[in-house]
Amino acid sequence: NLGIRARMSVIMLIPIEMIIAVISWSYFSRLSEIQEGLEERGHLIALTLAQSSQYGVLSGNLAYLEQAVQSLLKKDKGIFRVEILDSVKTPLINLTDKTLVNNEMQMFEAPIVKKLVLINPFGVEDVPHVSVAVNGDEVSLAEQTIGYVRVTMSPSAMLKDKRNRIFTAVSIALVFLSLSIISIILLARSLTRPL
Description:
Number of strands: 4
Oligomer: single chain
Shape: rod-shaped
């Protein structure tokens, strides 16, 4: 019992509604990818900071470390807090980006490791290392944990970027939707007027 105008409206609106549904599904399906990406980035940043802060923790040059962490906080908007702790987990540096507020924070921790080279300087016959070549088995590396790096991250920056893309796509779909509604009305009038 639908008229020509109603039928044309249904026919032309179905593709637009499908586009909006696909955009919405894409947004919600990407949330799990954002979570995986956040975990990967968090572990990578914690490990990188742990390796680069070894000298600062050993030498006690905390001003250099603090400056490096502050520049990292300015550049990466997903980092909420960076803590550098000593071997008994007493805070040495604790810097927070107070502009980020999110309940879904995730913390990543990595040890700051100092590698110790253990060398056996004598050969089998107690000959000094200078006169006898050292076998590969005689040199080994030992690790000593001298501190920890904790990085607390927020998915808000990644979500904001994703929301902006979805908002742009929905806005474009709404513009096409309004243009199609106007064209439906004009086309339906031009068809029904002669009839």
